[in-house]
Each structure stands twice: as structure tokens, then as C-alpha cells.
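ugh ok fine here u go
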Amino acid sequence: MTGSTLGVLDWGVGGLGFVKVLRARHPDARVVYWSDAGETPYGKLAAPALAARVREIAARLARRGVDRLVVACNAASTVLPRLGAPGLCGVVSTAAGPVQITGVIAHATRLALRARPRAIGVIGGRRTIRSGVYRRALAGREVRQRIAQPLSARVEAGDLASAALEGELRAILSPLRGIEALLLACTHYPAIAPRIAAHLPGTRLLDPADELARWVGARWLDDARKGRDVFLTTGSPAAMAKAARAAFGVELAATRVRR
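structure:
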């Protein structure tokens, strides 16, 4: 079998939003998706440990034929410079050989810069916001950031519309009222975009999934292998399938792999 195989890495099901957008554009390209839900949440891992984890998974995916990897997780994308991939795309050396790699942060930044808002909000996990990566990239604009840590866990649990979710959204988003645009700096958040929009009327939501899919399609899929997608998880396959269906309407059968 010849051609390249695309891998997608996220701690949970957030990256499936990107896969869904990519699949609409390129229905035949094969994707190997790795959910690392059996590992400590990436936002809670120390940066050196997280970088080592990303390299390890890249190697394990390389052994399955993956040679191009999308890190569809903001927290994991913050450590890509430690792996030799500080820009839009780089090559990570692994025990199984080199893997081309790109992270969602670089593409989200490009999207936000092209939108040219004078004032932009950014919501993301604790590691992403505290890293300051978006504030640095969007220097010269008013950037208002909010840690939205509970939201990804809500999406993973299939909670897209509860009273508890609404309360958390209210607390997180109230200080951002009146901004021109809001960058969704976690791939889980598009699953609750209608609820976010309801709290910020008149604000444009920026979801980097389409930006990322266009870039991947233009540069990485010319020689892509065709075939059925493969879904792997270090967590519960049943929980992954349930969350994927609730969050993104994606039906899948996952295989459990060792952590």
C-alpha cells in the first residue's frame, strides 16, 4: 500500500469536529484518530511530560503507517515547539521515524488574524490560556482571555444543554460581552457553539476546524491513502462512541489501545 496516512490526536473527542469538516471536503482520505482519554487530561500534565506523551503517540501512530499528524488539541499544541515544530508545520523525530506535524494553534491564529477584529475574546483550557500563546500572536489587538476549563468535560460527558452548563457559560462569557469575535481555543467548544452564541449576541465565533481542514487538504492529501477511518482510544470505546454521537453526530466504533 502506498501513499500517506493522516493521523489526528486529541485527548478526547474534540478533534472529531475537525475530522467531520475534513471528511466533507475529502470523503475518501483515510484518518487514524487517537483519543488519549485514558491519560491524565493534557492540561494537567507538566509541559515536559506532555511533550514526551505527544512524541510517544506520534511514534505509535507511525508504526500504524501514519506519517502526517494533526494535533487537534490546543493544550498539546502548546508543547510542539519543544518537539522541534514551532511554526505552522514541522517534523518530529520519533523512535519509529519522522512524522510531519501541525497543531491547531497555528491555524487558529491565522484565522483570528485574518478576521481583523479590534477586540477579540479567547476561551480555552487553563494551559492554553496561561501559556499566553494567543495573546502574543494577536499583539496589537485588545485580547480578552477566559479560562473555560469545565466546558470540554461537559462535552465529553454529552452535556450540551443542561442548566449547569448554562451557568458555567454565563460565568465564563459575561466579561466578554461586546467583543467583535470570539476564538474557540478548544476543539470541544464548537459542539456547544449555539449555546455560546446565545450568551454573546452579535459576536462572531471563530472555529479553526475549517481553516485547518483547508490547509491539510491543500498540502497533505494529494497522495493520501484511501480506506476506512480507524478510531483508537486509551479510554473507554463505549464512552468515546457516545460522546462522538452527542457532540458531533459522528457514529464510530473505537478500538481500545494500551495507555
